[in-house]
Amino acid sequence: MITVRPAAEADAPGIARVHVETWRSTYAGLLPTPYLVGLSSARQAAMWTQLLQQPAERRGTFVATERETGVVGFVSVGAVRKIPVTPDEQWRGAGEVFTLYVSPDHQNNGLGRRLMAAGFGELASRGLSRALIWVLAPNPSRFFYHAMGGAPIGVQQENFAGQTVDEIAYGWRDVPEAAERLSRKVKRQSI
């Protein structure tokens, strides 16, 4: 049984492990091998420990845990940090999904949807009506955001791991509705 709950500082090592596992799995052959090999669970754990000591960061971070394995997925959300340039709408004052990672062994079973529902619920509780997420264009999991109701709203180039890559912003214009829709779907799957 997998539980989704607010993160605690003690979850930092598990979050770090999932972060490194998913990057190595998702971006193998897409990003430079030395970069992926150089990812460090210890460095990620130190970063997440610091973040989770801050009440606002802890409040916006949720983990999926399994009794035997510990943390198997996580999401973190908050006020938008990087705003896309879009012709139709400004995204200032929106929410942002900073991270959403599910361990490769636990993907494709609804866990990402459960984590998105928790993250969107948090954004909605903060009164944020819109949200976005930035995804590296070569990430094959980007289609998940389409399935969750996100629409591409911007593209920009980013220097990453020594190469230039495209990042795509997916946006939701009604976070409370998206949170409710995802929660209903999660509840139906739990029955």
Describe the protein's topology.
Elements: E1 2-6, H1 12-27, H2 33-38, H3 41-52, H4 55-59, E2 61-66, E3 70-79, E4 95-102, H5 111-125, E5 131-136, H6 143-147, E6 151-160, E7 163-172, H7 175-190
Parallel strand pairs: 4-5
Antiparallel strand pairs: 1-2, 2-3, 3-4, 5-7, 6-7
Helix pairs in contact: 1-3, 5-7
Structure description:
This protein has a single domain, classed as 3-Layer(aba) Sandwich (Aminopeptidase). By secondary structure, it is α+β, with helices and mostly antiparallel strands. The protein has seven helices and seven strands. A seven-stranded mixed beta sheet has the order 1-2-3-4-5-7-6, sandwiched between helices. Helix 5 links the parallel strand 4 and strand 5. The longest helix has 16 residues. 33% of the residues are buried.
Neighbour order of strands in the largest sheet = 1-2-3-4-5-7-6
Amount of helix: 25-40%
Tell me the distance between the termini: 14 Å
The fraction of residues in strands falls at 25-35%
Low-confidence stretches at least 5 residues in length (pLDDT < 50)? none
Q: Give the C-alpha Rg.
A: 16 Å
The CATH superfamily bears the name: Gcn5-related N-acetyltransferase (GNAT)
CATH topology call: Aminopeptidase
The structural domain count equals 1
The number of helices is 7
DSSP, total strands:
7
The computed structural class is: alpha+beta
Query: Judging by the overall fold, what is the CATH architecture?
Result: 3-Layer(aba) Sandwich
Overall pLDDT score: 90
Query: Can you tell me the overall shape?
Result: globular
